[in-house]
Design a protein that fits this description.
The protein is mainly beta and about 350 residues long. The protein is built from three helices and 23 strands.
């Protein structure tokens, strides 16, 4: 076994948590430990006011000699990294170090403590995360990140300080909303639809995510496998009420925005998926109506993809009339948060 492989076995034996004592001709660790550091600033960390900032994540990482992919050491294993008030990121436990000649692969999930996460180290390069039995929760964004780094060897058989690990976090969920409009051409001048309640049901609420091949730069955000659609008119998955009524303007008024933001699993939209509206008009307001419409009416969009927002325009007359939704990356629809967060 060559010197680097002997070295690799030695540092694996001392668990890589701190710098080991080594002889003079062995590679030495970098003078600084592995860090997730840097002042992110408010603009790069803050998202929509009703979604959480990126304040913590769990990280997994492997280290291996690129010439010996069968010899893998896991150096971070669901280790929590948290943002501190002094403007830095810190992780639990003792420091881990860079070693010259080694390749490092990082995988991360935010928020920290997400349940159902498992990690497969594979050959290091193919290390992957998986989340089983996940149900989106209100005001919790699910994000993932990846990074790869090699620590070079210099002529002194050591290494200089390495830059902190850079992780760009991408949304793994989809976002849907609705923008209703009072159409005076069909309702009459000055007439408005006043929304009393709205609901969404008949979509999958639970599923599993496979992060094998996760590569955001190539547009690969992993694969979701979801369970059967759930909910009904009597027990919808999402419901919002407006006790004082919400007037739909002729230019359009957002529903399920702000505190009522909806995040859903990426999935195929089936005929079971429905949008329901309870409303009255600003004239003869004693009469209340409830209509529902399948989301597949706007059949140009049949799939909700990870990291995207879908805003369905609609009008109301003798029924709900859904138009083809606006589709954009998460951060490009104003009611949403930025589509990725960067740890510098």
């Amino acid at each position: 076994m060559n010197r680097m492989r002997n070295f690799f076995s030695a540092i694996a034996a001392c668990t890589l948590l701190t710098a080991c004592s080594t002889s003079g001709d062995e590679p030495q660790p970098a003078p600084e430990a592995i860090r997730f550091d840097g002042n992110l600033g408010t603009a790069s960390r803050a998202g929509d006011a009703d979604l959480p900032e990126l304040n913590s994540f769990d990280v997994w990482a492997t280290m291996h000699d690129p010439a010996d992919a069968a010899n893998i050491t896991t150096i971070f294993d669901a280790t929590t990294v948290s943002w501190k008030d002094n403007g830095s990121w810190f992780y639990d436990g003792e420091d881990r170090y860079w070693y010259p000649g080694m390749a490092y692969n990082f995988r991360a999930i935010s928020p920290a403590g997400t349940e159902g996460v498992t990690f497969t180290s594979a050959d290091g390069e193919g290390a992957a995360l998986r989340i089983d039995g996940y149900t989106p929760q209100k005001h919790i964004a699910l994000r993932a990140a990846t990074d790869r780094r090699e620590c070079p060897i210099n002529s002194a058989n050591s290494t200089s300080a390495q830059l902190p690990v850079k992780l760009s976090f991408y949304n793994l969920l989809s976002r849907i909303s609705f923008r209703g409009r009072s159409d005076e051409a069909s309702l009459g001048e000055g007439r408005r639809v006043i929304v009393d309640a709205a609901a969404v049901y008949g979509i999958a609420e639970r599923g599993s995510w496979d992060g094998a091949g996760f590569n955001p730069e190539a547009g690969a955000l992993g694969t979701w496998t979801v369970e059967e659609p759930a909910g009904s008119s009597a027990e919808p998955l999402f419901r919002v009420e407006y006790p004082d009524g919400l007037e739909l303007s002729p230019d359009g008024t957002d529903i399920f925005a702000g505190a009522d933001i909806i995040t859903v699993l990426p999935q195929t939209v089936t005929t079971a998926a429905r949008f329901e509206l309870t409303f009255h008009y600003n004239v003869n307001d004693a009469h209340q109506f409830t209509y529902s419409a399948p989301l597949t009416t706007a059949d140009i969009v049949t799939t909700w993809s990870a990291g995207h927002s879908y805003r369905y325009p609609f009008t109301v007359n003798t029924n709900i009339f859904l138009s083809v939704p606006q589709v954009a990356p998460w951060g490009e629809i104003s009611v949403d948060d930025p589509d990725n967060f960067v740890i510098k």
